[in-house]
Amino acid sequence: MSQTKVCPLCHREARVQDDYIRCEKCGEYILDEDVPSQISASLRLRSSLYFYVTQYADALKEKKIIPNFYPDPPDESEGMLFPLGPFGQKFRKMISVYSIEGLYPKDYNDRISKIMVNLANEVQFIGNTFSVKQYGDPDKSHLFFLDETYGFKTFGLQLNGILEMLEKLDFIEKHDSSTLNESTYKIAPKGWQLVQEYQQSHKTLPQGFIAMWFDPSMESAEEKIIKAIQDSGYLASIIKMKEHNNQIVPEILFEIDRSEFVVADLTGGRGGVYYEAGYAAGRDKPVIMCCRDDEFDKIHFDLKQKNGIKWTNEEDLYIRLKKRIESTIGKRSPI
Ligand SMILES: [Zn+2]
Questions:
Q1: Cα 3 to averaged position of ligand 1 atoms, centre (Å)
Q2: Average pLDDT in the 154-181 region?
Q3: Helix or strand or coil: residue 296?
Q4: What secondary structure letter does DSSP report for 175?
Q5: What separation in Å is there between the alpha carbon of 293 and the centre of ligand 1?
């Protein structure tokens, strides 16, 4: 039976059943066993995950598609977050919690923009207000990406500093209903404009999509591809699905659309992988081709011209793929 508890990401009331969480703000997701304790220990992680689920994981739900995916959780030792589709049990997209930390603001501008995006999501519509307790507000710290390296005791100072600055920048304005203990704000016209500009220029994630043959014989290759993408500083997006006549489900195209690049491993010669690689190329996404050497000669002619990675073993695949991502897409700064 599900019960009412608190959403570990936004601290609102949520329906929680075992590791399955349904929150009005964050949507439906599953947190891998250790993740809740990691979130409560790290505000940096909590803020980044919250930003991910509210800005990026939700879009799938709005499409109201019933996907058909393996319901089994992946066998991974590191933390995982699983945003769920409309029929949660049937769809799991794996997101490594550690790579999501890459969404934590990198600099001043990034921080201001992401805070404003969070505040806009909080108030939802023009004219609505948000309130913050004067001397620090632990339940809302994630909205402001407060920096825990300076200690929790500085949270009140940090929060007030940010609010003051947002006010000076004309992004927010104080509302009459503020009291001594609680300040209430509205988002000002310049603030809404910033949010719109940010969202328009951030339709893609720092993410690499993996198209490959999901066969047991490819499991360690899959692991190495994920690792090469993550170690280059990107999120690795992987959707495992049952193969039904090589059917390409809309989620896959949606994920490709919002990825910066695609890694397509042609080992196994699956039609779906060729289709996904072609789709990505048509959308002007860089596609990095790979294939195990014993199957390289079977690759379709056009793709051989593309200077693919002909790998001999999984370690070789990791080293060369990482190098290729960093030289063609660019290495992102470490988290
Ligand atoms: Zn929530």
A1: 15
A2: 93
A3: helix
A4: -
A5: 46
- Interval between CA 200 and ligand 1 midpoint (Å): 24
Give the pairing of strands 261-265 and 207-211: parallel
Return the number of other C-beta atoms located less than 10 Å from residue 290's C-beta: 22
Residues with CB under 5 Å of ion ligand 1 are 7, 9-10, 23, 25-26
Q: What is the mean pLDDT of residues 174-192?
A: 92
**Single-letter code of the amino acid located at 118:** N
State the Cα–Cα distance between residues 169 and 134, nearest whole angstrom: 20
Q: Which amino acid is at 208?
A: G
- Identify the CA nearest to 299 among candidates 270, 330, 332: 270
The pLDDT tens digits for 228-276 are 998 888 888 887 655 544 566 777 888 898 899 999 999 999 888 999 9
Structure tokens at 285: 């996404």
Q: 22 CA distance to ligand 1 centroid (A)?
A: 8
How far apart are the C-alpha atoms of 95 and 274, rounded to whole Å?
24
Phi, psi at residue 173, to the nearest 5°?
-135, 145
Structural domains in the chain, sorted by start: 17-104 (no CATH), 108-201 (1.10.10), 205-335 (3.40.50.450)
Q: Is 277 helix (H, G, I), strand (E, B) or coil?
A: helix
C-beta atoms surrounding 283 within 10 Å: 13
What is the Å distance from ligand 1's center to 229 Cα?
A: 28
Ligand 1 geometric centre to CA of 71 (Å): 23
Give the helix/strand (H/E) hosting 112.
helix 108-123
- Ligand 1 centre distance from Cα of residue 98 (Å): 19
Ligand 1 centroid – CA 23 distance (Å): 5
